[in-house]
Amino acid sequence: MSKKTILITGASSGIGKATAKYFQENGWNIVATMRRPEQEEELTQLDDVLVTQLDVTDADSIRSAVDTAIERFGQIDALLNNAGYGAYGPLEAFPMENIQRQVDTNVTGLLAVTKAVLPHMRERKSGVIANVSSVGGKITFPLGALYHGTKWAVEGLSEALHYELEPLGIRVKIIEPGAIATDFGGRSFDFRNDETISEYQPVVQAVMNTMESVMGEGVPPVECAKVIFGAITEDSDKMRYPAAGGAEEFLARREGVDDATFFAGVKEMTGLTHQSV
């Protein structure tokens, strides 16, 4: 039986890199894609790992990466759409180009990579597509209209895709990480604020003062990688996989109450209960 192959986007760090290493340790071929593969040093030293360039906003790089993966390993058995980042802050503070970047990376790019891999999987009548959403794809926090909007989109498009792909032998999985110790607060985080719009500043200050304590330190990304491995390898109709970092607790808290009660709880956690313009 030939080794299976997974293509991972955003594999230069965090969940993507941890997943590449975990699958490699468990006997898979890895296509670890990233925008700047020339900077990668660790994954390039591993057996059966192909590090190659892929920018989810660049159609040519997507086609090239998929073709290179098939040429190297003969097949793609699984796709992990992991590349993404988070834009946070008052909507009015974001230029339209940043808004477009958030949508292009988290939604349009995910669809473009999926579309590029589907002909291969359709021909083979087999495959798994796992899309990294977030607990933020089911619940929201203040100042996250752009990020949460794209992750809610990932939830919806994934669920809809499963109807058309399931009859072709292709399964769709949704991964919903909680607080993971990655660089999400660094290069993967785009915070904007316009201090000249004074009306938003009490909200911004309250959220910034409490967000670290609300989200916690986060668990190592390998814990999320283990969930991803289980989701992709198990023969199950299960679609959604809460993935460490308090994900199950967050989601259970949301599902157990009505909107007003949940909103009140979030406002209390983030210090917004007594804020007004």
Describe this structure in words.
With 277 residues, the protein is α/β, with parallel strands linked by helices. It has a single domain (5-198, 217-253), classed as NAD(P)-binding Rossmann-like Domain (Rossmann fold), CATH 3.40.50.720. It contains eight helices and nine strands. The protein has helices spanning 14-25, 59-73, 96-124, 145-165, 201-215, 221-233, 247-255, 259-269; strands at residues 5-8, 29-34, 49-53, 78-81, 86-88, 127-132, 170-177, 189-191, 240-243. The strands form two sheets. A seven-stranded parallel sheet has the order 3-2-1-4-6-7-9, sandwiched between helices. A two-stranded parallel ribbon has the order 5-8. α4 (145-165) links the parallel β6 (127-132) and β7 (170-177).
Topology, element by element:
Layout: E1 5-8, H1 14-25, E2 29-34, E3 49-53, H2 59-73, E4 78-81, E5 86-88, H3 96-124, E6 127-132, H4 145-165, E7 170-177, E8 189-191, H5 201-215, H6 221-233, E9 240-243, H7 247-255, H8 259-269
Parallel strand pairs: 1-2, 1-4, 2-3, 4-6, 5-8, 6-7, 7-9
Helix pairs in contact: 1-6, 2-3, 3-4
